[in-house]
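Sequence in, structure out.
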Amino acid sequence: MTSLSTTPALQSLYPRQREAWVEDVPLRTEDGTRLILRRVTDTGAPAGQRPAVLLLHGHTASSDMFLVPEIRNLVEVLLDGGYEPWLLDWRGSCRLPYNETGARFTYDDVAVYDIPAAVTTIRERIGDQQLFVVAHCIGALTLSLSLTAGLVTGLAGVVAHGVFLTPKMSVKTRLRTSLGGELLRSRLDHIPVDFRKVGLRSRFLPAYALLARGTDDCADPTCRLVHNSWGMGGDLFVHDNLHPRTHERLAELLGPVPTWILPHMRRVELAHAVMRWHDNDDRYEALPVNAVDAADRLDCPVLLLAGSQNKFWENSNELCYEVLSERYPQLDVRYVEVPGYGHLDAIIGRGAALDVFGHILHFLGEHR
C-alpha cells in the first residue's frame, strides 16, 4: 500500500483532512490479460465498511483521470462522501501497453473479460457491501454490454457519463471517423498524442501534422490533436474548463490512439446502439447483438450524465434516456445535463467538483 497524500504522482493541491491509502490488487482476466486494479481506502474507516465505487475511464485515458492532483478530483470527493473508490485500468488504458503492442482487442473483450473480472475481485474483498459503478465514455459503453449480457449483476447503481447504450456522434465526427479513420488505419496501427515524442523524421509526422490542425486558439499541437477528439473533429472538452496544469499534462492523461479499434466504434455509432463485434465466436456468445434490445436486463438504477456542450457524443445520453423511457418504462433511469461542460472536462475540469460531482454523490446517496 502507498499513502495517497505522500505519493508524488497523487499529491493534491487540496489536501484532505485524513490520509488515504492505495492498495494494488492483482488482476488477470480469463484470457490472460494483466490489468491494474487499485483500492483507495480512507485511514479513518476500516476497509470494506463503506460502499465501494468502481471507476471506469475512457479509451486511451487511464484511472489517473480520476486522480488529477491540481483539482479536487473524484476520488477525493468520493472518499470525503463516505465511499471507497476502486480504480480499474482496463486494457484500453494508457498505463498499459495494449494500445500500441500485443494482441489487438475490441470492446467485446472489455465487456466479457475486464469489467466482470474487476467486479468479481472487488466483491471478494468487500463482501456484502454495496458496489456502485461510475463510468466515463467507452468505459460506460462497454459496461452497458456487460450489464445487458448479464455478466455484471446486482450493482447498487450506475453512473454513465457521456454515453451509454445509444452512441451518437456529430455528422462531422462520423464522416471523419469513417473516411479519415480508414485512411489512417491502412497506414498506421496507432497515433501518438504527445507531439514532443513524434520527432521531425518520424513516420507519424505527416498524420500528426494533418490531425493537429484545428480552429481553436490554442497553439499547443498536442492539445489540438486531443481537443479534436483523436483528430476526428469532435471536441473532447471545453478548453477554458481545464486547469492550466491539467492542460500541460494532456499527453500524460491520454495515450496513443489505436486506429484498429475504429471499425467497432463506427459500427456502434452508425447503429446508434452498442453492438457486439464478434458474431461467430463462442467466446462472446453471451453478449447481445444489440445491447438496446436487451436493456430489460438492467437490474439497477442508472444515472445518465452529460455536459450540455459535449461535441463528441453530442446528446447520446439524452437519446438513451428517451429510448429507455419509451421501450422499458419499468427501468429506474434518469438523465442530468450539466450546463457549460463538454465531455472530458466534466471529469478533469477545475470546477467539476462543484458543478458535476454533486450530481454523482446525490445519486449514490439516494441508493445507499
